Structure formats: C-alpha cells, structure tokens
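Page header: ASSEMBLY MODEL / four components / 472 residues total.
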Amino acid sequence: MKPVVTIEPNWQLCSDCAVRASAVCSSLDAAELREFGHLGRRVHFSSGQTVFSEEDITTSFYNLLEGVMRLYKLLPDGRRQIVGFALPGDFLRMNISGRHNFSADAIGAVTVCQFAKSPFGRFIEDRPHLLRRINELAIRELSQARDHMVLLGRRSADEKVAAFLLGWRERLVSLKRALDTIPLPMNRQDIADYLGLTIETVSRTLTKLERPGVIEIIHGGISLLDPAKVEALAAA
Amino acid sequence: MKPVVTIEPNWQLCSDCAVRASAVCSSLDAAELREFGHLGRRVHFSSGQTVFSEEDITTSFYNLLEGVMRLYKLLPDGRRQIVGFALPGDFLRMNISGRHNFSADAIGAVTVCQFAKSPFGRFIEDRPHLLRRINELAIRELSQARDHMVLLGRRSADEKVAAFLLGWRERLVSLKRALDTIPLPMNRQDIADYLGLTIETVSRTLTKLERPGVIEIIHGGISLLDPAKVEALAAA
DNA sequence: CGTGGGATTGAGGCTGCTCAAATTTGGTGG
DNA sequence: CCACCAAATTTGAGCAGCCTCAATCCCACG
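Prediction written out in full:
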C-alpha cells in the first residue's frame, strides 16, 4: 500500500536540484544550502498515493520536486473540492495547529523533499531572508486562492473550463517548458472537482470546444487551436 | 467623495490599541511598539467608501482597527465575488508586485492603521518574530480561503447560508463579544456575493430558515433560535 | 481479442437564476 | 409625529444551466 522509497539525505543534491531557483531554497546561499540539505530527504510516491491527509497531525513540510499532486478537501458525505494542483517548486506547509488543512495525492509519480517540522522550524527561525521568501510564496498562494474563489463563485461552466485550460498552460509555461500541447495529467473527475462542476459537464464543455475546432482533445492533454477564442471564453 | 480624516501618528496610542493582542503588532515588545507606532497613522473611512482598489498600485499596508470591510474582486462585466470580510485585527497586505489583488470597502464606519510600504518593509525586514507573526496570519488566511473554496464549489444554497451564519458568529465570538443575536452589518447583496448566490436566493433561504423557527431575522442581524439545526444544515 | 476503467453522450429533472412586482425599512422634511 | 420617497428586502412565476442517472464508447492493457 505504501511502497515509499526514501533516498538518503540529499545535501549533495541540493546544488543541482531541479527546483533550486523557484522553491523556498532560492533564498539560501551556498553554505546555508548545505546545512539545509541535511534536513531534507527525498521521498518518492507512486501514482494515486496519498502524501498526507487533512486530518493527520503531520510532522513534515514538503517541497515538491517532480510530478503533480492534487490538493483537496472532503466533506463528510464525500463531496470533494480540489483546492489546487501542486507543481515542482511548490511548498506545502502545515498551519499553527500542526495540520495541513487539506490532503494531497500524487498524480503520477512524485518526488518530494520532506522536512521534519522541528529542525525545519529551527532552521528558518532566525533567517529573515528565508522567512521573507516563505512569506512571498504564501502571498502568491493567497492571491491564487482568491482568483479561484471568483471562478468558483461567479463563473459559468464554459468560463471555468476555459480559464482552467489557460491557467494550467500558464503555470506549465512558467515552469520553463515549451508547449505545443497542454498535458493534463489529472483526470476529468479531478478537473471537475477543481472547478466545482460534475465530470459530465466538464466532458461536455470540452467537446463543445472541440466541435468548432477551438481545441483539440488528445490523449493525456489538449491543444489550443484557437487560444484567442479560449481567452475570450474565459472572460478575463 | 473622500472625506477621510487623518489623525496624527499614533505611537502613543498603540499601547492601548483595541487590536493590540490579535494584530500583527502582538509580536512586538514595548520598545519596538513605540518605533512601530511612528510608522502608522490612523485613518477613518465612512460607510461605503473604498479603502483601496484592486487595480491600484498601492503604497500601504493596513491594519483594521474598528469596523468591517468587504474585500472583493470584480469581473469585467461587473460580477462581483466577495473574497472575505475583514474584522478588527485583520491585516491587509499587498503582494510582490505592489498591488492588493482585491478591493476593499468600508461597511459602516471604519478605522484603519495605515503603514507606508517602504518604512514598513524596512521595519519588518530583520525582525524574525514579526515575520513569523505575519506568516502565521497568512497561513490562517490561506486556510480560510480553502475552506471558502469548498463552500463555493461544493455546497448547496442552504448549506452556504447556514455555514455563513455559523462562521460569522464564530469570528465575532472570537473577537471577544458575547452575542445574543448575530449582527450582520453587510447587506444581502454582500452576503450573496460572498456565497456565490443571488440576492433573491439568500433572502429566500433566510426566510425558509425563519419559517420553522430555526432563526429569527431582526433588524441588522439574526439570532439562532436553534443552533443545532443550523449546524446540521451546514453539513460541515 | 476480450476486459475494464475512464470518458463521452443522452434524456430528463431540480436547484438556483432571471425578471418583475410587492413590501418593508430608513431617512427626510413638513 | 407623520407623510413621503428611495433603497433594501422579500415574494412570485417561469426558465435555464447544470446535475442525475444511465447507456455507450474508447482505449490501454493483460
């Protein structure tokens, strides 16, 4: 059930870490980075595994290195809202009470850099530049969260899907990848739970976009044949 | 249009500030507090005034001292999503690009403690305890934001209204006030835009709760006659 | 080549929206 | 104190968008 592979402490790996530039650690100098590296260990998860759960008292911070995760909350009756998708470089922290307030699953294979709570807390405690960096990331997340509230509360199904495609492409692009087609590692149900829709509505909406040739649905992704049209549909 | 009254720097007022214990400044000692007080000035806004706008490049941080504000985003066609209500002690910051990513209006009379960006930034720069405090507040906001996403994306109108009443009461209670009835300073449209509903649906839902005596609608507020029933409806 | 899970398509229904009117509330001035 | 007006709220009727339930399709995989 949990074939988790833990690799040795990765202090020697930090310097050429794939997310070095974008992650929390971007604010560290070489010496600090070495010390910091001792605190984290790389852990792998395979597709569908749960990295942590909402209700757990967790003892770790996570830095996503490779792969995609869905971050979600469940209602008692099973309804699910995906509050975000995590990409490499994203930092997942717990709140004051020592819990994440959401759960996280791997979508496809995932590698994280895991930090134990106490040593991590001690390390950042007196490093204002790191604290500022963490702050910066939190602010950005807050901003995204508020944008998503607008989407969930005030946009139609068509607008939601169009905005999702554009936003997801945007994130992948800023992750340096040149894209001809947009990969969609998450399944339709994930997209539906992210947009506050049902799987059928998502499917229908995509089909509706494909019919006039605005997008093309490919296995594992889509491509924007008419990006301008999609942007118009997203209605800013 | 902007009869804003600015009071002199309030360093002598900080020590007995109403939000001293809950706001950012709770992490400061006496000496720091005096210095900090020099940076802020108290500003008053009257009902309905806009404190800052989404698109403005703003130059200030705000600490809400008295009153209630609605924080919202607008779509180009005028649809509005209220992303939160600010209460005394809440801290409103801009993001890296120097903008708030939402607008803020006063609901009733409001007093804020306003800080200019640069001196504020310099003050917190090397104060890890303050940075940690700010972080803490950001994390809490993020947590609330995610809860609200669940509400917006996955709850029915009845559940939304019930959850709103409980959540609002909770916040007021934790602000020390004993409550017989729950004051609702915001109007129905505000509630609707907060919950992702129309004003008619909010009104109908409240009526539906009042008819069997679950709540009572009073001038400027409501009272929970049967809190257990409301909690059941919220389906937490 | 068969199997099964994900995705798509279809038909019909319900929740919440739209448009419109009635009612209540709050403010203002006589 | 009361009449009157504007604004907010409530109520009603009808409709539409999205959901529900169900069947079918499409691949990937054994």
